[in-house]
Design a protein that fits this description.
heterodimer, A: alpha/beta, Fumarate Reductase Iron-sulfur Protein, Chain B, domain 2, FAD/NAD(P)-binding domain, 3 domains, five-stranded parallel beta sheet, globular, disordered N terminus, B: alpha/beta, Elongation Factor Tu (Ef-tu), domain 3, Rossmann fold, six-stranded antiparallel beta sheet, 30% strand
């Protein structure tokens, strides 16, 4: 379907993907990325607007217009430096940001249906950066700033918000120590997002690049338990950033929900991603087997879980969602990838009970059909049960991807931290400052579950404020 | 490959400074150098450890902590691949990853008589709680049970901090012949001053503790041992039904009011990975032999 008068616009340069049938059996990254020719062709479509809106669409202020111009001119080094000025994790953002809701949504070409593929270009530029790790290239600044060992900042949690904060501050001479509770740094980038969407080697590369800026990563430190915020100030840290993520997976409080075979998406994905359970018994951690898999929820995590189950040999994988396809919170791209690979969709229904055998092993899910009422004042269509309309799904594995709540490990041991009603940390929207002096917070532990790049934006804003205070 | 961080960070290299075999090939204790954990660990806390790059994470109760020496004590029963591997380590070896303290500590206040019930390896975990109560000025009565006299752990240690140590063995080789809960019941009949009972041990024992104390109306806690992955609230593997609510043993426990716990469900969920656990153990034995 052509839109009137817009047919002149050259379409987006497609990106090659692994074949759906092939990839559904393996964990290799699905999207293969542009080559140089494709990247330059795509970059040349950019209108180089006088008043670019793409930059405003980016939570971490990437100067999209400039870096795209540099790609068009085949100046990849310049493009990388330009991105790194504001974004510490370009290879990750190029993969997992919902660009269609951010930079690409506000691109002047968006109304044509063919906005510049900014995410793909960002990924290309970052992936092509293999060169030296000199200070200049790491920081995007022409001058190497020596790290001041006395100007110390601690970040609790090593997910996207802390990594961004660390990158920003280290590039400006501040010594950053990142404290991670698990045995490997990266947070949700490592335990949550699967290999086929974000290869662990990409995360590793971004973390190595931060280590080159003398950022320390200390594992097995549980914020609030192994080390308290007060301890950190006593150890000479001048500011503390809390980026511990949300974490606590939600369940639905339905009968039979604790049967063997029902897992939170967090548990399922952690067993596979962080613990490498897909290589059991070479690795010790087992992954629950599943032939008939039902994933409950309609977000990106649900898609990740469904596609993972498929790769682990499930006979069929159904994603069940109580609204319709149009209301699903998952990125369209993720949903499409899942469907291409063979994931089935069961919309307008919700589980009401789970049933198992005498050993407590799950056998089936009873589902209730739903219908959607017209949108209320909240703007969302409300799903309501269709009285008496039930059906059953055979299932030996159910994955609950219905969101997360606030993790209280740090907050319950730090009573000085003010929380909102849902247990998330109250922090200033601009500076990230909390109720404690020189303690800042950002990411999911402030907003509840959100995107990687939103957490990065919060990390960047907090870093700016911390730097301002340290230099004041 | 996962990104790597510095693991020596958590206060030392997690070196095993002392190993003592309590029951040959079954139960041992290890004193581990972990100054940060030792400085924070309270009775009731646990730690999560991982032994190799391909290893799983398992929770173990901290049986004692010495903040001055920077040592923690763990006691383990060899029951799966990871504990079997742990048992091959000795003094001078290190634990790859050691993370803690985790879980809510026992709420200890000065209140009078507290009865601490321990069964099997649970006696070791109970020891730290008993010690905490002793330090708080409570009269501690320890009730411990095992299959036979040789399998009773921590009796001398408990004698130092308890007003009395009551013993039961299945075979009658020491103390009362029969169940630990029979000893508990008898004690409760004779001492109306008991303020609290805490039980740590196998699930059937903890369930029996709950049943025995109920008619006496005495506050009773049990420390649950459900399967965990991260041990810090992230995965929900350890969820248990307590008073009809779905709670996470790692961050909302591990101690819960005994009468409210759904022990049948706990028992069932502990079997979730039985088949895989056997495969792991078999492979480990084969490799050990060759």
């Amino acid at each position: 379907m052509k839109k009137k008068g817009k047919s002149k616009v050259r379409p987006r340069t497609p990106m090659s993907m692994l074949d759906p049938k092939e990839r559904a059996k393996m964990f290799s990254e699905v999207a293969l990325g542009y080559n140089l020719k494709e990247a330059i062709a795509e970059a040349r479509r950019c209108l180089q607007c006088k008043k670019p809106s793409c930059i405003k669409g980016c939570p971490v202020d990437v100067d999209c217009k400039s870096f795209i111009r540099m790609v068009a001119e085949n100046d990849l080094h310049g493009a990388f430096t330009k991105i790194k000025e504001t974004n510490s994790l370009p290879a990750i953002c190029g993969r997992v940001c919902p660009q269609e809701n951010q930079c690409e949504m506000v691109c002047k070409l968006c109304p044509t249906g063919h906005p510049i593929a900014i995410g793909r270009l960002e990924r290309f530029v970052a992936d092509n950066y293999y060169a030296s790790t000199s200070c200049e290239e790491e920081t995007g600044s022409g001058v190497c700033i020596p790290i001041d060992e006395n100007l110390k900042v601690a970040a609790i949690g090593s997910g996207p918000s802390s990594l961004t904060l660390a990158g920003f501050l280290a590039a400006r001479g501040v010594k950053v120590s990142v404290f991670e509770a698990l045995h490997a740094p990266g947070g949700v980038l490592v335990y949550g997002i699967p290999e086929f969407r974000l290869p662990k080697s990409v995360v590793q590369r971004e973390i190595e690049s931060l280590k080159n800026l003398q950022v320390d990563f200390l594992c097995n430190y549980v914020g609030g338990m192994t080390v308290s915020i007060d301890d950190l100030f006593h150890q000479g840290y001048k500011a503390v950033f809390i980026g511990v993520g949300a974490g606590l997976p939600k369940f639905m409080n339905l009968p039979g929900e604790n049967l063997i075979g029902i897992y939170s998406a967090n548990e399922y994905l952690t067993r596979v991603n962080l613990m490498h359970g897909y290589r059991f018994p070479e690795y010790d951690t087992p992954v629950p087997p599943g032939k008939n898999v039902v994933v409950i929820g309609g977000g990106n995590v649900a898609m990740d879980a469904a596609r993972t189950a498929l790769r682990l040999g499930a006979g069929n994988v159904k994603v069940v969602y109580r609204r319709t396809k149009g209301e699903m919170p998952a990125r369209l791209e993720e949903l499409e990838h899942a469907l291409e690979e063979g994931v089935e969709l069961e919309i307008l229904c919700t589980p009401v009970s789970f049933h198992g055998d005498e050993q407590g092993v799950l056998q089936k899910v009873v589902m209730q059909r739903m219908e959607l009422l017209e949108a209320d004042e909240s703007g969302r269509k409300k799903p309501v049960p269709l009285e008496g309309d039930f059906f059953e799904l055979e299932a030996d594995l159910v994955i609950m991807a219905v969101g997360t709540g606030s993790n209280m490990v740090l907050t319950q041991t730090t009573p000085e931290l003010k929380l909102n009603k849902r247990g998330y940390i109250l922090a200033d929207a601009q500076s990230g400052e909390t109720s404690m002096d020189m303690v800042f917070a950002g990411g999911d532990i402030v907003t509840g579950a959100a995107t990687v790049v939103e957490a990065m934006g919060a990390g960047r804003r907090a870093a700016k404020e911390i730097l301002r205070r340290l230099k004041a | 490959m996962l990104p790597a961080g510095d693991k020596s960070g958590a206060g030392g290299m997690n070196k095993i400074v002392k190993k003592r075999v309590l029951i040959p090939d079954r139960v041992s204790e290890m004193t581990i150098e972990a100054p940060l954990i030792a400085s924070k660990a309270k009775p009731g806390n646990f730690a999560v450890l991982r032994l190799t790059e391909k290893g799983e994470r398992i929770p173990l109760t901290i049986a004692d902590a010495d903040p001055e020496l920077g040592h923690i004590l763990i006691v383990y029963l060899v029951m799966g691949k990871t504990t079997a591997f742990l048992d091959t380590l000795g003094e001078g070896d290190s634990i790859l990853d050691l993370c803690g303290p985790l879980g809510r500590p026992t709420r200890i206040k000065k209140q009078g008589t507290v009865v601490c019930v321990g069964g099997g390896t649970g006696i070791a975990a109970m020891h730290h709680i008993a010690k905490g109560n002793f330090k708080a000025g409570n009269k501690v009565v320890s009730v411990i049970g095992a299959r036979s006299k040789d399998l009773l752990l921590f009796k001398p240690e408990l004698e130092k901090i308890s007003h009395s140590v009551l013993v039961s063995t299945d075979d009658g080789s020491l103390g009362h012949k029969g169940m630990v809960t029979e000893v508990l019941e008898k004690y409760l009949q004779n001492d109306p001053e008991v303020r609290e009972v805490i039980g740590v041990g196998p699930v059937p024992m903890m369930r029996a503790v709950a049943r025995v104390t109920e008619p006496f109306g005495v506050r009773t806690l049990v420390s649950l041992n459900s399967i965990m992955v991260d041990g810090m609230g992230m995965c929900g593997s350890c969820r248990v039904t307590v008073d009809g609510k779905n709670l996470f043993a790692c961050v909302e426990g591990p101690e819960f009011e005994a009468s409210k716990v759904d022990f049948d469900e706990l028992m069932m969920r502990l079997n979730a990975f039985k088949a895989q656990e056997q495969i792991s153990m078999e492979l480990f034995k084969q490799r050990k032999q060759s």
